[in-house]
Write a structure and sequence with these properties.
Distance between the termini: 28 Å
Structural class: alpha/beta
Order of helices and strands: EHEHEHEEHEEHEHHEHHHH
Strand content: 15-25%
Number of helices: 11
Length: 291
């Protein structure tokens, strides 16, 4: 078994070393390679990449994050592909945990784990234990299953499913819904094996922070992408715009209620209370790769 870690990068100099080291320092017998597709960074990123002999990387203009990931994936030689953003990182034991899951359940098409949200300095903000993968939930309420730090069998990409480079914000939601529409199965691995960074240049935060004009522009773009995803993978609802809106609203309400019930059963609300009280590693550093 071999795993290919694919990272799309553009001007992530303050964070990319942590990403690289979190892979390099995995104490694992699993064969792996780390491929970085850089979009022409002008900060310190290229100097950092040049300092690592084990990396396979190339820096050239691209059409955005999705295009960069697709380029990296095409170079991958592994049986399994790990999508890892340049500002995110793996936690100790990630490769072994995914390899063990793949051995136990070889017919599964991908695996995702519990994960941390961390700030720019790597301090824990909150924890997430995702509920079971449900393509309809992804379509109507969003990508509650993480993509960065998750692993996908190469047969997914060989089937022709790639990231849609026309999506600038919701490429993860489209990718997951696309997988579900083709019957691919993703399974959960217990344990916190990845960390998702929230910082000022993060696309997710840009949609809720920053100047009003930019925020509203990104919200409109996200709403348009959401609608396109529902059109692609949701129910066929006829031509009446009133019926479409009402049905979509009803489906979204249903899946939100289902999602909340799943979170309650899995103890995620209890986690949130502990986190708010300062437990659950909140405020502690996750930058194990710097030790």
């Amino acid at each position: 078994m071999k795993m290919s870690i694919v990272t799309a990068s553009l001007n992530q100099g303050p964070f990319i070393r942590d990403c690289i080291e979190s892979v390099r320092r995995q104490q694992s017998a699993v064969a792996w390679e780390h491929i970085i597709a850089d979009g022409g960074s002008t900060d310190e990123t290229l100097a950092i990449l040049e300092s690592y002999e084990h990396l396979s990387w190339k820096s050239e203009p691209d059409e955005g994050q999705s295009d960069a990931f697709n380029k990296g994936q095409h170079q991958a030689s592994g049986d399994w592909i790990i999508w890892l953003n340049a500002d995110d990182f793996l936690m100790p034991g990630a490769l072994d945990a995914f390899a063990a899951a793949a051995t136990r359940d070889p017919s599964a098409d991908g695996f995702y784990s519990d994960y941390y949200y961390v700030d720019a300095e790597g301090r824990v903000l909150k924890r997430r234990r995702p509920v079971r993968f449900n393509p309809s939930m992804v379509t109507y309420i969003g990508p509650y299953v993480p993509t960065s730090g998750s692993v996908y069998h190469r047969r997914i990409f060989e089937s022709g499913i790639l990231l849609d480079k026309n999506f600038r914000i919701c490429m993860d939601r489209d990718f997951l819904a696309h997988l579900g529409s083709h019957g691919f199965r993703l399974e959960h691995v217990r344990g916190y094996f990845s960390a998702f960074r929230e910082h000022g240049d993060n696309v997710h935060l840009q949609s809720v922070q920053g100047d009003v004009e930019r925020r509203e522009r990104m919200k409109r773009k996200a709403a348009a992408e959401h609608e396109l995803i529902e059109q692609r993978y949701g129910l066929r609802l006829g031509h009446s715009s009133v019926v479409r809106r009402a049905t979509r609203a009803a489906l979204a309400a249903y899946f939100r209620a289902y999602y909340r019930a799943e979170k309650l059963v899995r103890g995620m609300y209890a986690d949130a209370v502990v986190d708010r009280l300062g437990g659950g590693r909140v405020g502690s550093s996750t930058l194990w790769m710097r030790d």
